[in-house]
Write a structure and sequence with these properties.
Blueprint lengths: L2 E4 L2 E8 L11 E4 L21 E4 L16 H15 L4 E6 L1 H12 L4 E7 L13 H12 L3 H12 L2 H7 L1 H11 L6 H13 L14 E6 L8 H9 L4 E5 L6 H4 L1 H17 L1
Parallel strand pairs: 3-4, 3-5, 5-6, 6-7, 7-8
Antiparallel strand pairs: 1-2, 2-4
């Protein structure tokens, strides 16, 4: 992966898709969630062809520096905006998942004109009601973070991210292989603590109405055990004109589980924003 020196932060990023996409097709910036590298978008990227796609590792994860925290969501947003400047990106479509959706909210609020559209996947606007996972997910979250063996950790992560029906259908071999790739190497302790502090303080509720006019798609996985699906409902209500897409059989790991469905939704959303 190439690196960008953004002040005192060394950030890893990657570029995908054609160097010269068809005219009128704007680039897409993908923002990853808690503790994970931007490469976890790898299932979605092929579903968005003929565009320049940018992924990156947030402060505290992947190959990007992990300075001691605590971090703030606005700080993670400034990092991503600085990467856009470094790459010479003008207007882009902005897509964020989970914590990445929180970062994307702050980015859009900080400089709305830079974004042709906003997509928020499996995320929430913050506040006390959303600081902790739903009860069904707390046990799996603790198991994923404190398991004493890799096998138990992957089992806990799989239960946290994917509904039982999907786990049964796809089988443990695929799940363990994909998740092992996603979580290797693990985010350093300083990075996890820093990002967790940003998540716990995240709150955009009062500011979201200012995004009126920005084409926004909110994607709600109804089987999410990590972020309460009601967070998507609140986002869709708080952002004027936002559209909501519900996926009844999807869990928090939907960027792996439902990549083709997401790709179809993103293509349509981008095209509508560019046409409008």
């Amino acid at each position: 992966m190439p690196f960008a020196q953004l002040g005192d932060l060394r950030m890893a990023y990657d570029l995908h898709g054609p160097d010269a996409p068809p005219p009128g097709r704007l680039p897409v910036l993908f923002v990853m969630g808690f503790g994970l590298s931007g490469r976890v978008w790898r299932f979605v990227l092929p579903e968005v062809p003929d565009r320049r796609l940018v992924t990156f590792d947030n402060r505290g994860a992947g190959q990007t520096d992990a300075p001691r925290g605590p971090y703030r969501m606005a700080q993670l947003a400034r990092d991503a905006l600085a990467l856009m400047d470094h790459l010479g990106l003008g207007r882009v479509h902005l897509v964020g998942v989970s914590m990445g959706g929180m970062v994307a909210q702050e980015m859009a609020l900080a400089d709305t004109a830079r974004f042709a559209s906003l997509t928020l996947i499996a995320t929430h606007p913050g506040g006390p009601a959303h600081r902790l996972p739903p009860p069904a997910g707390i046990w799996h979250f603790l198991g994923a973070n404190f398991a004493r063996s890799q096998q138990r950790r992957l089992d806990a992560v799989a239960r946290l991210l994917f509904p039982k029906a999907f786990r049964t259908e796809i089988g443990p071999e695929w799940l363990h292989r994909v998740l092992a790739e996603d979580f290797t190497p693990p985010a350093p302790a300083a990075g996890r603590k820093g990002q967790l502090a940003a998540v716990m303080r995240h709150d955009t509720r009062r500011r979201l109405p200012s995004l009126a006019g920005l084409p926004t798609l909110v994607i709600k996985p109804l089987q999410d055990k990590l972020v309460a699906p009601s967070g998507s409902d609140r986002l869709a209500r708080m952002i004027p004109g936002a559209r909501k897409l519900e996926l009844p059989d999807a869990g928090h790991g939907l960027i792996r589980q439902k990549a083709s469905t997401l790709g179809e939704a993103l293509r349509a959303h981008f095209a509508a924003a560019e046409a409008g």
